């Protein structure tokens, strides 16, 4: 070890406080990088496991392959394993209910693994004449056990309703059709099967809550391909990448497999961040790149401040090295050597702190999810690759942070060090302050301003620290909000838990009112609403037509002499519900007269033509504008369509969200919330018929609420649809994303605060001699505190002057990156900006006062003689 490095180590030991502060700063930075990488991997792992649990572990499938094609798929270099599935069909099950069948199908051994078949008792089937029964089937009262023989008449389901007449067989994803208590479907092409029960399994993933049959699972082997045509081949690939979307169709074409026989498991592939949508991938990786850059910038700023202040404080020591013949290279390398020493200490501790922090976080997150009745297990995932990348990025960050201070250190001469002329600028022009400052705020403010100008480099380092903290907080906050908004736009999450309607489709109003009155007293029920809808056509003036419809390729098809045609849906609420809905949207209920309605103008929907999720205004309308409700008439002789005016609907208010219920927004659909009287008047003037009345319920315990409803006598006359089970994954992901978002913002906020405290406290510590000098010439404690307060204000104003425009620029960059997949207007988060402005002044003031409190009792003479901190 050369003499310069030895002196550097000695200097680090002598300045223990500054060295410790630098090490802590680097540990925080490394922990942040490690935490973000680990949390990202853990989140992806959860999404992958959840998707596999819900869809099975397969990446693409083929239908109706012959033996030769199957062998080619099996030997394909992208195939890891193959699941074979054959749906035998449905067999009638005695008793009444929403599941009137037993669903019989076959899987091979790989299929049972890929589709998460979990054995409960006995063993899995190994022959085609063996079956296992779903535990839910046994719980329904099915009187069979292991060892019993079962004889079944298995066939295909066909609907008897006029609407579905002529359609093909129904599958397990289509619920049973019941009308007036009678099953409106039949089994055809039935065959007799005899099975031996060899075990029971947990409820499988294809036994949806709405599925018509309980599962009975048998075995299949490759030989079946010679006799059966409807076997589906599910492939688990060993190459999960975007190359699948090009390679598989080409492979299929070479094997004479029709493209319609191929299906990709997009849900699982997207969980691995693999999608054929280039815009979506550009959005994902673009946002990842932006957030990594933001984190690196924050880390560089945090560590750079420590090194910059270190070099400033070490100017005498660097000058001493120059006086004894040290070269520029040796002085520069002394800073890099210091960086390496700090890296060796800080990086392992930072990685450990990051992993420990995320481990503790996930422990509490899992507890929160468990209390919310979500069966989710967030696991800590830390690969060697991710930790290696974190270590490399951290080391590069430290070296980048040390670069500018190292260059500056190499230029320190012995004369500069003795004069201390690099940091302190004493020329009259440099420190001149505007006379108004003294007149308005007093001499303390003038001294504060001159202090900042004299200590220009330290002042800039502190301001830079504040700017980076502002940019970090606002950018990460906007990034997190963008993630949440993007998820909400594409998840299409329902805003209710249970829907109940008449089993006949019409009537049932009294029964629904009885249910609503009965459950409103339940503690777990948060809200209920009951209404009916009616669909018809609408005509608006051309100048009112919104961009969504005018930008369509076939926009001219909607334009006629009468105006622009829209589809229109009325939602008729009773007076109390309408008043509540109006107040939710900031609309005065007293302003809504008969013949008026609230237009839901702010909507979001998937636009297949653009390949985006769009959030926009449907009409370019204002309160007071009107829309014509019309009846569409078709002339069979001429083939022309005309619209007959039914009523004029005046817009009493504009809303940005729907009431509880099922709605499907699109560019050419208008949704009006009206009173029941208004809908009744329209109904009298048209041939259109309103839909049946539906009751929607929001509840904290959907299962308990449904059980309560089913105990009522009127329940047998109602269709009850519980959305809880197939909305559960979205709810889980929403909660997890919220925890991730707020946790991320909290992490960045804490780091930003630590950054500011670190920079200001170190800066103040380095100015102890300066402050001692001021006290020695008679500055009173009151005047000193006032000076410090003004310095805090100047720090805050300067940092906000630069930090806010930069933050808005970064926000727009993030917003612009999302527009490959989502389309919505850019809005500045004023609340976050207000929080940032307030936080800057509070944190700076507290940091300054805290730092000053540490030195207020310093002995003036001892402080003036002190060299190290």
From TrEMBL:
The keyword Lyase does not apply. It is a multi-pass membrane protein. Coiled coil: none annotated. It holds the Pfam family MacB_PCD. It is found in: Cell membrane. It comes from the Bacteria. Its main location: membrane. The chain crosses the membrane at residues 20-44, 284-307, 335-360, 380-404, 459-479, 735-760, 792-815, 827-850. Residues 290-412, 744-857 form the ABC3 transporter permease C-terminal domain. Keywords: Cell membrane, Membrane, Transmembrane, Transmembrane helix. Residues 19-215 form the MacB-like periplasmic core domain. Residues 163-185 are annotated as: Disordered. The keyword Cytoplasm does not apply. Belongs to the ABC-4 integral membrane protein family. This is ABC transporter permease. The lineage of its organism: Bacteria, Bacillati, Bacillota, Bacilli, Bacillales.
